[in-house]
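pls design
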């Protein structure tokens, strides 16, 4: 009988798959609140007595089960909007899931190594997990989609730790708790080891201290409220992607935006926000539609922030940008160009090497990245724009805040995702940008989810999917209070990378004999 079908091997495979499914259930829209704190237990059980090669396979199985069920919406994007048939859409989807699964496979391999002779194994395993998350967030332009810590976006007292450690600190606590719980429940002999009780004490201290920290200074802190509150209006036009760029529907799109915008005039907003590429034409070109937008800003006596494609003529070609414009009633115009583009969606990376590749989502455009990250000034306040999935990259929000942004604004178009879990996940990650920098976050989406998020991460109001809606809230622009995370960035994650590198070197140069003899500290 092939080894994979042996009873013990089958049990381990099922445990690995279960762990992957539990990881997916930890994220929205399911978001079972206790799930992430036990999601890795089945994987740890499967890894019990596993050798390195088997650990890699089990970790890969966990990763595939997780990512196949987490980012299934990629098939919809490629099939419906990328004009790829279903068979061709599945190929890139499977490759991406395999790539992401490699990080969990490497974590599983590290688990088998760490358990041999290294004190505080679960602390080191948690460091490895975070180090691999950090690598995933930066390697090949990075894809930090749904890092483990994001599962806690609704638990405000816990996630405030992110203003020190970023989302990585939450991931660390979850993995450490999983490890200690596994040892307590399934490895009774470790209770006789004094080193293990020191690790228990570490976990017992870190989690309550993190929660206690969350209770302190949730509002205000060292940040200074600059002036009065700012009334802001968000317009969610819910324009169908399949007709959005049809020239015959430009007038209808503008009518929808104007009608919804006028409905907020009674609230006297000082800032009105439309979503990413809300304007399906080049605003920079003089036209009746461009004049209509400027007239609407004058009539409302409010600044208007909106997305529009833009271009720049070079010597032999046109260069296109995904741009956010800010215009005021007096006609002053500022803009921000998206700096972190979607690979194979908005551009083809390594174009000379991948000369055969094309953009997978034709409707998204073929753009060039902007060359600066800086806030836009409106009526004495500074807005830090983030376009679409730029909101999942902590560094961009950090730079905007360092440059003086008092409010973070995410213009997005989640219509690409359809009625899937992706819009829920996208919103959950945006919450952390507000907490990390202690700045209010405003999201304006073509459809779901537009939202107002407080500096502590509370979702003050939120739209529904596939609804034409307006949201109006008063927010407090915050300044002069940079958090530890804003000032110093991913110091915590880099420390875990340093610990992980030290452990690897220790195993390579000092621990071969102990590993060879199979002395298991767990």
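designed seq:
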């Amino acid at each position: 009988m092939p080894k994979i079908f042996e009873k013990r091997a089958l049990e381990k495979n099922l445990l690995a798959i279960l762990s992957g499914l539990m990881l997916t259930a930890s994220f929205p829209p399911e978001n079972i609140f206790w799930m992430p704190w036990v999601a890795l237990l089945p994987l740890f059980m499967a890894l019990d007595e596993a050798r390195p090669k088997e650990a890699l396979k089990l970790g890969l199985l966990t990763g595939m089960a997780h990512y196949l069920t987490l980012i299934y919406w990629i098939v919809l994007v490629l099939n419906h909007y990328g004009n790829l048939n279903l068979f061709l859409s599945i190929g890139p989807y499977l490759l991406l899931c395999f790539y992401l699964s490699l990080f969990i496979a490497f974590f599983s391999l590290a688990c088998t190594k760490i358990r041999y002779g290294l004190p505080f194994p679960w602390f080191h395993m948690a460091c490895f997990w975070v180090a691999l998350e950090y690598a995933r967030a930066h390697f090949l332009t990075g894809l930090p989609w749904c890092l483990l810590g994001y599962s806690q976006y609704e638990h405000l007292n816990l996630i405030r730790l992110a203003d020190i450690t970023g989302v990585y600190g939450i991931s660390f606590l979850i993995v450490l708790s999983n490890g200690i719980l596994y040892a307590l429940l399934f490895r009774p002999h470790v209770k006789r080891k004094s080193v293990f009780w020191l690790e228990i004490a570490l976990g017992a201290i870190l989690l309550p201290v993190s929660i206690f920290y969350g209770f302190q200074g949730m509002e205000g802190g060292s940040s200074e409220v600059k002036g009065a509150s700012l009334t802001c209006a968000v317009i969610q036009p819910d324009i169908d992607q399949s007709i959005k760029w049809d020239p015959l529907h430009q007038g209808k799109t503008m009518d929808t935006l104007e009608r919804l915008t006028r409905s907020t005039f009674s609230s006297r907003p000082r800032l009105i926000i439309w979503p990413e590429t809300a304007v399906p034409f080049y605003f920079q070109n003089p036209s009746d539609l461009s004049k209509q937008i400027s007239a609407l800003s004058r009539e409302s006596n409010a600044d208007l922030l909106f997305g529009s494609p833009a271009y720049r003529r070079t010597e032999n070609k046109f260069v296109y940008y995904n741009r956010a414009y800010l215009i005021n009633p007096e006609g002053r115009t500022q803009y921000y160009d998206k700096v972190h583009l979607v690979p194979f969606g908005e551009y083809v990376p390594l174009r000379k090497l991948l000369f055969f590749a094309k953009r997978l989502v034709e409707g998204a455009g073929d753009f060039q990245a902007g060359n600066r990250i800086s806030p836009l000034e409106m009526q004495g306040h500074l807005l830090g724009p983030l376009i679409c999935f730029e909101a999942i990259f902590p560094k961009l929000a950090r730079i905007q805040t360092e440059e003086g942004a008092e409010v973070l604004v995410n213009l997005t178009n989640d219509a690409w995702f359809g009625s899937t879990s992706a819009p829920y996940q996208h919103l959950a990650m945006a919450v952390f940008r507000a907490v990390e920098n202690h700045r209010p976050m405003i999201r304006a989406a073509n459809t779901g989810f537009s939202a107002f998020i407080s500096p502590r991460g509370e979702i003050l109001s939120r739209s529904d999917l596939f609804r034409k809606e307006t949201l109006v809230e008063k927010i407090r622009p915050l300044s002069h209070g940079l958090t530890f995370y804003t000032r110093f960035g991913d110091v915590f994650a880099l420390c875990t990378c340093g610990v992980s590198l030290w452990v690897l070197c220790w195993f390579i140069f000092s621990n071969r004999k102990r590993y060879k003899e199979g002395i298991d500290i767990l």
